[in-house]
Amino acid sequence: MRSKSDTADISSVTTQSKIIVVKIGTSSLTDSNGIINREAVKKLCAEIAELKASGHDLLVVSSGAIAAGMPELGLGDDRSKVDMRTLQAAATVGQCSLMSVYREALAKHKLTAGQVLLVPLDFIVRTQYVHAAATLRRLLELGAVPIINENDAVADDEIRWGDNDRIAALVANLVDADLLVLLTDIAGVFTEDPRHSTDPSLIAEIINIDSKIDSQVGGPGTARGSGGMASKVTAARVASWSGVTVVIADAQRPRVLADSVEGKIGVGTIVHPRKTHFSARKLWIGFAVGSMGAIVVDDGARTALERHKSLLAVGVLEVIGDFDAGSPVEVRAEDGTVFAKGLCRHGSRELHDYAGQRSDVLPTGTPNVVIHANDLVVLPETDSSVAVTVDGIT
């Protein structure tokens, strides 16, 4: 445990932040009917303008396009009742409305908005990663405020999984951000789910995100949203492993962005950055993409992988699930512990045939590498290092 007197270093670090990524969710941007809440956007943009005037650069990752588009098309407000293609159509309509509101709100502060739509390949394909980073940095140099969203119109997985929180974490890595602020409709991460508990306490600081914290957060908070606190905690984990400080806080809190930059205790939940950092590609493989299956390996293979070697067919004991070549998979030890993730170079059916075989007995021309070291992330162990809790905040 850390005392409040131990937190002075947090304030000094965040006060010096120059690049800040702000993510705001659907539930914080739209009303119960899915209509864009202009006052919420005005509040956010006023706080952005205040920080811009202090010399900081800000990027906004904004949800809300699908929710905003559905009522315009007469589709109601519950996205769970609408098919994928219709959601994509709604996104194209809602994105126009969303950007119009942002442009108007920022213009009142003499700021210019720039729309940027991203997909997963922008983070895992090197050329696209470099291009996206250069474009965002140039927008900042020109004084603009990038308004970033998933390209919902073409990215099926993002709509299905609601990955704007994770996209925000990867954007923070992309632009070498100092701070990521995840704005939501509750005050932060609590010791218990505040929607179902009568006496929750806010967790003001988290050193390492562990399984206990994962178990304390729930699913999406509203029918209009898709992330929920679990998605925010996952995003915080991704960002912390890229060296970025994270604040999870209530979008309606007065001066929430300024307090986040100052590292004010009680602003929300502050998640500290890890000392060891992963590259953007490793972050995506390890934390931001779901597993399509699993591979169980023997103890010798586990030792080799933990020494940053490639996984060979001879070390495979079992193949779980049905997946294609190139799919992300979990790597499990003999006791079932998931200790790594990687991109498998074989499909599951093919790998079933090769599992446990030495390279010299594999069919001619068959690659013996199952997961190359470059496509493998050994997952770090976490410990229970939750710091200060603040009682009475709901």
Question: Could you walk me through the main structural features you see in this protein, from its secondary elements to its overall organization?
Answer:
The protein is 37% helix and 19% strand. The chain is α/β, with parallel strands linked by helices. The strands form four sheets. Strands 3-4-2-1-5-8-9-7 form an eight-stranded mixed beta sheet, sandwiched between helices. A five-stranded mixed beta sheet has the order 12-10-13-14-16, with helices on both faces. β13 (328-332) and β14 form a beta hairpin. The longest helix has 24 residues, at 84-107. The protein is globular. The relative contact order is 0.13.
In short:
With 394 residues, the chain is of the alpha/beta class. It has 15 helices and 17 strands.
Proportion of residues in extended strands: 15-25%
Q: Regions with pLDDT < 50 over 5+ consecutive residues?
A: 1-15, 219-226, 382-394
Helix share of residues?
25-40%
Structural class: alpha/beta
Distinct helical segment count: 15
Overall shape: it is globular
Main β-sheet, spatial strand arrangement: 3-4-2-1-5-8-9-7
Instruction: Please give the number of β-strands.
Output: 17
Keyword list:
single chain; 394 residues; alpha/beta; eight-stranded mixed sheet; five-stranded mixed sheet; 15 helices; 17 strands; globular; disordered N terminus; disordered C terminus
List the helices and strands and how they pair.
Blueprint: H1 8-15, E1 19-24, H2 26-29, H3 38-53, E2 57-62, H4 65-72, H5 84-107, E3 113-118, H6 121-124, H7 126-141, E4 145-150, H8 156-161, H9 164-174, E5 179-184, E6 202-203, E7 205-206, H10 211-216, H11 228-240, E8 245-250, H12 256-262, E9 268-271, H13 280-288, E10 293-297, H14 299-306, E11 311-312, E12 316-320, E13 328-332, E14 338-343, H15 348-354, E15 369-371, E16 376-378, E17 389-390
Parallel strand pairs: 1-2, 1-5, 2-4, 3-4, 5-8, 7-9, 10-13
Antiparallel strand pairs: 6-17, 8-9, 10-12, 11-15, 13-14, 14-16
